[in-house]
């Protein structure tokens, strides 16, 4: 049974902590247990301790991480549980949340926890790693469901304005021809156009020749969201006709993960986050994979903070563009598209012909489809 919505004074007491007891009164029952769970987590905040809002000293009553997880799942509604678990991992770095078998079997799968698993999987024992893999698989499945639909829609084919279609769906609707063909049904008194025969266009797919798509993924620690969504994106592209997808991860080393593209869970479990960044070396590797420049797209997912040679990076991008390769730069690839990147370097690459943007995975699929169609 989760904690009922408390009265306003009770909510303030849970927010302010034990220091508010003289003014607001003490807590009992589930409210007291909820306060202990909040204290266990937010009592670690040094700013709160300095302001006297909460005390970090829990003495003999301090909870273990599994006990805290169990209490949280018992006392709070789902949206609060997800926030508390996210704060435990991201704000306070409580690695035990994702390295304890008991906790992993109890905790709610989420992208936040997936990020934590990728950061801490090297600390896990085999049995714990197996539980973490199940968590990763569930989160990837959820992302895949959404992203696969967006990819399929983006690559459904361009509209062929020379042919009409019997498939009456919104994305094939021809507004201009429908308007022109029904103007005689305009009612000036009602100021309405009555459509008798809507026009829909056919679509044609340009898959007569295979396209090579090379995803270069910066796996430095700050790019974890990009790594997750790039892995899922690569798996979605892998199943498309006429596409040959490669996925290459890099920091100061370059690792070709194409063999695992069809299994994003396995791919993510092999990623090693952290380290420096040598973008030029990654671009050089991609350049060596290009067989047909005019049918190749290189997508560089990075924050563009180059730890290697700026000159070499710019030179290689220029060479690829001049050869006819489409070179795209993604400054962010998480679900919120929150960019944080070296704008000066990105501007230099744009001047040499790279197209740079910050977008969600779904928007990337549409962008890739646009480039493939010419």
Automatic annotation (TrEMBL):
Coiled coil: none annotated. InterPro entries: LolB (IPR050458), Uncharacterised_CoxE (IPR008912), VWF_A (IPR002035), vWFA_dom_sf (IPR036465). Residues 210-369 form the VWFA domain. It comes from Luteimonas salinisoli. This is VWA domain-containing protein. Gene3D superfamilies: von Willebrand factor, type A domain.
């Amino acid at each position: 049974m989760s904690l009922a919505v408390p009265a306003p004074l009770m909510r303030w007491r849970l927010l302010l902590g034990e220091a508010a007891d003289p003014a607001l009164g003490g807590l009992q029952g589930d409210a007291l247990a909820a306060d202990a769970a909040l204290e266990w987590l937010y009592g670690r905040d040094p700013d709160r301790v300095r302001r006297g809002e909460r005390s970090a000293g829990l003495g003999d009553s301090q909870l273990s991480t599994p006990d805290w997880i169990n209490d949280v799942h018992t006392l709070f509604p789902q949206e609060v549980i997800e926030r508390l678990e996210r704060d435990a991992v991201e704000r306070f770095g409580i690695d035990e949340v994702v390295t304890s078998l008991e906790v992993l079997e109890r905790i709610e799968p989420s992208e936040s926890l997936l990020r934590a698993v990728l950061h801490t999987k090297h600390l896990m024992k085999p049995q714990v790693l197996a539980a973490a893999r199940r968590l990763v698989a569930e989160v990837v499945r959820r992302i895949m469901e959404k992203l696969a639909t967006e990819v399929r829609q983006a690559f459904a084919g361009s509209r062929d304005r020379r042919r009409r279609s019997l498939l009456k769906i919104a994305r094939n609707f021809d507004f201009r021809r429908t308007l022109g063909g029904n103007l005689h049904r305009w009612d000036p008194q009602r100021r309405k156009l009555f459509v008798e025969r809507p026009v829909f266009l056919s679509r044609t797919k340009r898959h007569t020749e295979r396209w090579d798509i090379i995803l270069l993924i910066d796996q430095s620690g700050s790019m974890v969201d990009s790594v997750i969504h790039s892995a899922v994106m690569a798996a979605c592209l892998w199943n498309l006709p006429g596409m040959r997808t490669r996925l290459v991860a890099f920091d100061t080393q370059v690792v070709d993960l194409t063999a695992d593209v069809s299994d994003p869970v396995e791919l993510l479990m092999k990623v090693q986050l952290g380290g420096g960044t040598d973008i030029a070396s990654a671009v050089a590797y991609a350049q060596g994979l290009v067989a047909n420049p005019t049918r190749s797209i290189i997508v560089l997912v990075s924050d563009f903070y180059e730890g290697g040679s700026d000159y070499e990076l710019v030179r290689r991008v220029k060479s690829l563009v001049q050869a006819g390769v489409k070179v795209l730069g993604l400054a962010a690839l998480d679900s919120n598209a929150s960019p944080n990147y070296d704008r000066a370097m990105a501007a230099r690459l744009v001047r040499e012909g790279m197209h740079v943007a910050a977008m969600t995975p779904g928007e990337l699929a549409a962008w890739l489809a646009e480039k493939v169609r010419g």
